[in-house]
Amino acid sequence: MGRTLDELIAQFDLSRITCHSALLDLEKLPEFNRLHLRRLVSCETQRRQLVGKLQVLVEEAFGSQLTDRAVLDPAYVERVILLRQGHVCRLQDLVCPTHSYLWTRPAVERAQLGAISEKVDEIATRVLG
After folding, report:
1. Would you give the DSSP letter of residue 104?
2. For a disulfide at 35, which of 2, 22, 48, 54, Cβ 3.0-4.6 Å?
3. What is the pTM of this model?
4. What is the pLDDT of residues 48-107, one digit of tens each?
């Protein structure tokens, strides 16, 4: 499913071009994007470029909310890309609100934690430690 640019060039045949309109199956587009992203991630050079792009996207999307700048560390960003590559279609998906937990810490007050769990001190120590 899906071909590289080199494969498309090798298989190109001008005699097969027709004048009818071609339709793209838009339902398959997310899967094609996912496959393309996986291909980029599998190449170390391309993966480093993706890390840089994602760092910029995170900074733009969550810059004022970043309490821990360690989330911009290239090793962490690369790990996120590697772990989420099969779950997203585009790099921009990783900075949408549903993935904000990857980049920001939730704002939870002590009273809220106390209502949820009796181990408030242990939770705070582990989160901040």
Report:
1. S
2. 2
3. 0.69
4. 999 999 999 999 998 887 767 778 899 999 999 999 998 999 999 999 999 988 888 777
User: Can you state the angle between helices 29-42 and 44-62, rounded to 10 degrees?
Assistant: 120
Q: What is the chain's percent helix, strand, coil content, to nearest 5?
A: 70, 0, 30
The continuous run of DSSP H or E covering 35 comes out as: helix 29-42
SS3 19: coil
Q: How many CB atoms lie within 10 A of CB 91?
A: 19
Joined together, the tokens standing for residue 11 give 């298989």
Q: Where do the domains of the chain lie?
A: 28-128
pLDDT tens for 70-79 read 788 999 999 9
Burial annotation 32-59 (CB, 10 A radius, 16+ → b, else e):
ebbbebeebbeeeeebeebbeebbebbb
